[in-house]
Amino acid sequence: MPVRIPDALPATSTLEGENIFVMTETRAMHQDIRPLRVLLLNLMPTKIVTETQLMRKLSNTPLQIEIELLRMASHEASNVAPEHLETFYRTFDEVRKERYDGLIVTGAPVEKLDFEDVDYWNELCNIFEWSRTNVYSCLFICWGAQAAMQHFYQIPKYDLPEKMFGVFAHRLMKSTSPLVRGFNDISYMPHSRHTEVRYEDIVANQNLEVITYSDVAGPSIVKSTDSRHFFVFGHPEYDHDTLKREYDRDIAAGMDIEIPVNYYPEDDPTREPVVQWRAEAQLLYTNWLNYYVYQATPYDLNEL
Fold first, then answer.
1. How far apart are CA 196 and CA 142, in angstroms?
2. 59-68, 126-135, 231-240: the lowest-pLDDT one
3. Does the annotation mark 235 as catalytic?
4. Which long-range contacts (CB under 8 A, 24 or more apart) does 153-159 make?
5. Is 237 a catalytic residue?
6. Which one of the listed residues 142, 191, 246, 280 is annotated catalytic?
7. Is 194 among the catalytic positions?
């Protein structure tokens, strides 16, 4: 089944070119089934790239999903055309009276800042609080996951001595969880961050459980025991060349940065990166939508 997105969104042509089934709003209006309503709060500066990456993952399920894009009104985005934001994005004031089956909050390149120093922190906290009553299931990614950990469970983030940058192996800590159904015993996930949330802080909270863990990168997938909050501390949605583009950008800027771990064959940045995370990444989003959104959310969202 398709992912339902606005007719003229730039991701449409990209996904159709990859033979991914997308459905425009015009076509979806003629179907009688209720699509899952998923709100995507996109905090990344590369808005269109992130939209496309996430919609690629959300589209490959037997479910019809209606995606709405949300931006922060208290932050002025500088890496995307204002026309794109005005056309495709809504603000919190425009959605606060609505209800959604799912909410996805992306990462953001602000992890070196204290949470309170992020210019949209208060607005983000308001969205987190609103989600308690207006969203059935929330999926938080990278910095978004760290921010949600702090807000909902008072679990801090810590600075890393050097950037966690590369593709890291993770093992299943709770293989019976439907969230990782179909995962191999060892799976891989890209990480690109300067801070971490620590395993011992998470397991000390009886409301949280660690699903996958890396001896190098730490917890990678965590969920709340009530299955309403899901935290992914890496970037399973990344394209094959996303880490390469980050690395090339930093090298061009004269930054002292290590080659991404376990990414280039023989650590040779002149060679094409090898994708090791695509299958589990797709399973993660498919399982979340199926087991924790579609099969759990009420048909009538007013019952949330």
1. 9
2. 59-68
3. yes
4. 153/205, 153/207, 153/208, 155/197, 155/201, 155/202, 155/205, 156/197, 156/201, 157/111, 157/115, 157/195, 157/196, 157/197, 158/195, 158/196, 158/197, 158/198, 159/112, 159/194, 159/195
5. yes
6. 142
7. no
b/e code 6-28 from CB counts within 10 Å (16+ = b): beebebbebbeeeebebbeeeee
Tokens of 69: 């894009």
Residue of 14, 132, 26, 135 lying closest to 70 (CA atoms)? 135
- Model confidence at 31: pLDDT above 50: no
Rounding to the nearest 10 degrees, give the CA dihedral for residues 129, 135, 137, 138.
Answer: -50
Q: Domain holding 230: CATH number?
A: 3.40.50.880
Q: Six-digit token pair at 304?
A: 């949330």
Instruction: Kindly report which listed range (23-27, 54-58, 206-210, 256-260) carries the lowest average pLDDT score.
Output: 23-27
Find the catalytic residue in 51, 66, 196, 237. 237
Residue found by looking up tokens 């007719």 in the block: 7
Supply the pLDDT for residue 17.
74
Domain of 43 in residue numbering reads as 3-157+196-237+278-303
Could you report the per-residue pLDDT of 103-129, keeping only the tens digit for each? 999 999 999 999 999 999 999 999 999
237 membership: H or E segment, kind and range:
none
Split into its structural domains, the chain has a count of 1
Report whether 119 contacts 201 (CB < 8 A): no
